[in-house]
Write a sequence for this structure.
């Protein structure tokens, strides 16, 4: 098993990438701390992990709140003794996120608070725990829009993911000699609730698909596979990486017919 005896805290694990990662990491031997603001989704993930024979607990925490982040890490160490993998994955794409002219300040502030500040707070409390464990792996979910401008505007989201990428690189450099690796997972457009709520018409979906060489949206499970690599010792010489898992979207100038 690739994560035997490891403890992984995954934020946003009540759905999508986080849930698939919880299931996959548990299958590979990790004990999972499922963190979400959605109690129902979080508890469902825990039940799914346990049904498959794994170990998991649910912690309700809002990643934009310092006290919640401190508590989620405390509960991880209390339940399983140590923390080895910190997957800062929770994020939102607000339905009113738009271009600079039309995005309201409340949308900007909320998006930055969850997507960018949430990663900082996860690290603020999580990195000391990784140190106590003798090292570990931090994975921050950014996005392909951190490296490409999207024609369907979502300015706050894009800015927040750019911040995730920048802070990932700096964290990687700062903690490299502490046996702590920090990488950014950059998914392409996925067939998850988060994006499908945003691309809510066939026209909007097609507008996106035209740019993806593979001609399809990715699956949350495919992101979990990539996160597993970053979480495990197989990626022992990988840190500060912009790990793009995007069906070729960032490689394409013109996509095949
Ligand atoms: P999702 O909506 O299925 O899951 C996100 C989870 O985060 C939900 O369970 C939600 O309740 C939780 N969450 C939201 N705000 C939170 C908060 N303040 N505190 C704790 N939990 C909170 O979405 P997903 O597609 O699995 O997204 C996971 C990550 O991947 C996000 O950071 C997202 O930006 C990123 N991403 C998604 C796509 C995509 O196309 N879906 C593409 C690139 C990047």
């Amino acid at each position: 098993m690739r994560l035997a005896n490891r403890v992984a805290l995954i934020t946003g694990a009540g759905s999508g990438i986080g849930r698939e990662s919880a299931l996959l990491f548990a299958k590979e031997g990790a004990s999972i701390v499922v963190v979400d603001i959605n109690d129902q989704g979080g508890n469902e993930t825990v039940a799914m992990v346990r049904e498959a024979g794994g170990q998991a607990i649910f912690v309700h925490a809002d990643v934009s709140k310092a006290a919640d982040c401190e508590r989620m890490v405390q509960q991880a160490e209390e339940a399983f003794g140590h923390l080895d993998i910190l997957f800062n994955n929770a994020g939102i794409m607000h339905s009113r996120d738009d271009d600079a002219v039309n995005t309201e300040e409340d949308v900007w502030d909320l998006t930055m608070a969850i997507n960018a500040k949430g990663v900082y707070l996860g690290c603020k409390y999580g990195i000391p725990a990784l140190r106590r464990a003798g090292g570990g792996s931090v994975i921050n979910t950014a996005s392909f829009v951190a490296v490409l401008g999207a024609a369907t505007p979502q300015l706050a989201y894009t800015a927040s993911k750019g911040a995730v990428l920048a802070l990932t690189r700096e964290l990687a450099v700062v903690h490299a000699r502490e046996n702590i690796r920090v990488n950014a997972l950059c998914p392409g457009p996925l067939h998850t609730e988060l994006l499908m709520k945003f691309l809510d018409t066939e026209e909007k979906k097609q507008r996106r698909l035209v740019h993806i060489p593979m001609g399809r949206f990715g699956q949350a499970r495919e992101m979990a596979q990539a996160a597993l690599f970053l979480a495990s010792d197989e990626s022992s010489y990988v840190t500060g990486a912009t790990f793009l898992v995007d069906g070729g979207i960032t490689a394409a100038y013109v996509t095949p017919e």
Notes: The CA atoms of residues 74 and 129 lie 9 Å apart. The mean pLDDT is 96.
